[in-house]
Amino acid sequence: MKKIFFLITSALILLIIAVSCEKDYIRTDKENADDDTVAGDVDIHEDTLDYIIDSAGADYIILNGNSIVTSATGVTVSGSKVTIVASGTYKITGSLINGQLIVNTEDNETVRMILDGVNITCLTGPPVYVSKAGKVIVFIADSAENFLTDGTSYTELVDGEPNAALFSKADMTIYGNGSLTINGNYKDGISCKDGLIITSGTIIVNAADDGIRGKDYLIVHGGNITVNSGGDGLKADNTDNTSLGYINIETGTINLTSGGDALVAQNNILINGGLFDITSGGGSSRTTTASVSAKGIKGLANVLINGGSIRVSSADDALHSNSNITISGGDLTLSSSDDGIHADARVIINNCVLNITKSYEGIESKNITVENSMISLISGDDGFNATAGAATEMNDNSCLSINSGYVYVNASTGDALDCNGNLYINGGNVIVHGPASQPEVGMDYNGVCNISGGTLVISGINSNMTQAPSASSTQYAVLIRFTSTLSANTIVHIEDSDGSEVLTFAPVRSYQSVIFSSPLLESGVTYNIYTGGGYSGASTDGIYSGGTYTGGTFYKSFTISGIITTIGSASSGPGGRP
User: Fold this and answer.
1) How far apart are CA 324 and CA 246, in angstroms?
2) Dihedral (C-alpha) 547, 353, 275, 264: value to the nearest 10 degrees?
3) How far apart are CA 506 and CA 531, in angstroms?
4) How does pLDDT run across 467-514, given as a tens digit for each residue?
5) What's the farthest any 2 CA atoms get from each other in the chain?
6) DSSP structure string for 529-548
7) Is the per-residue pLDDT at 132 higher than 70?
8) To 5 degrees, how large is the angle CA 577–CA 457–CA 544?
9) Is residue 517's pLDDT more than 70?
10) Of 178, 122, 176, nearest in space to 153 by CA
């Protein structure tokens, strides 16, 4: 599936050329718009001809409050209701106080609708209702402001449909350089039962339930999209075909405020770029019940993020998948009342900037891998939690691997690095501020903890649950168990016998142990430990550098003679898990 995802990127890069509001709008750069690599072997409805609009040759439909004027042969009018019954290009202007625009064709061809200053209110159904067509192209004319508003109840429903202010049973594409504001007072704002593509334009949706839905797929090539919804924000929910029900976003500015999930797909979610501002369930200051899903980005199959600037504040998980989450680029800021990132199977974080400012658990999955990324993680419970899902203190074959990059973890009441299987530190800089009280610790693992490179610093409690790295590591490490608790922000300083600085670290909360591993530790060398004192240089995440340490109190010396050196013994007190 990952191979398919990477093929998508080259298949959907677009260029929009707007000539004028009365001239052809042409999209010319897509050589094979119906590429079948979007998700599985599924054709999408997009074609180069979709982006050619002949405004000059369009048939006109003029809306006049309670009446409609048109000379088009493919149109029928009944009072304040106009129905397009044949394919073609139609330019719609004006307003309806309580009317409806319907598309119901038999020729299975494309209907192109140019919205040029349209304001339709329909109190009993969808203002725009596509009942039948080959596909529908909605072109938002340049600089035009368009409005669709429905009432709070619909009078003609079949199996609960239609249910949106802009409702389509056919594939639909929306683009242009104007604006379209939709007020879905009944349920959804935009709902398409087939595939929905948004290429450009300013689209504002206020919806009682879901904001924008493409059942088979929702593809966003660009545009400025704002959704305020009582239910989900952007949604693809085909449950009948495992190749459908996906969301692809290439770029754009996307602002989502949702009562439910902000961005949710039954299958995969792919984000290649764009600016995202997402608030779900009232944001991270709120909590949800077990029956309510209010996640930020939720792809039930997979979530793949290749780029973009993404801000999420969520009452539920900020990023969620029942399978895999892969972040291969981008700048993400996540704040959640639940997990920052949760995937049942695997989380891969590579070549990105990730800032989790609030979470219950920071990153949770059975397998977690970090490569070449800048990560700052704040959690109330576990920071990293590699687990197969069961609450157990036995090896469940889960895995946490940090291979490179910079990782800062601040876990106030849970295990900062928690792995029910094997934990590997192969490179990078890992700075961990663990909890101040038992039974949680700075690092907890049930398999092995092998260190082969990088720098690891962990503060935490001192109990029989406090673990040093495994002796099977290939890089030296030291576990310092202090005889008494040191207060928050008290410096622990390690230097070699020549006075050269090896570590100067000030944990953010009280602590009684420090785990340290670094390429600077050498066999046969004696090191001195000091506590307290001051430092003239700057501190980043508790690590001091670039200055001079003074005024500390000598604690102990140690000499490296084996892979793991332990100083002191475990304090008495509870040692097991509740």
Assistant:
1) 14
2) -140
3) 10
4) 999 999 999 999 999 999 999 999 999 999 999 999 999 999 999 999
5) 95
6) EEES-EESSEEETTEEESS-
7) yes
8) 135
9) yes
10) 122
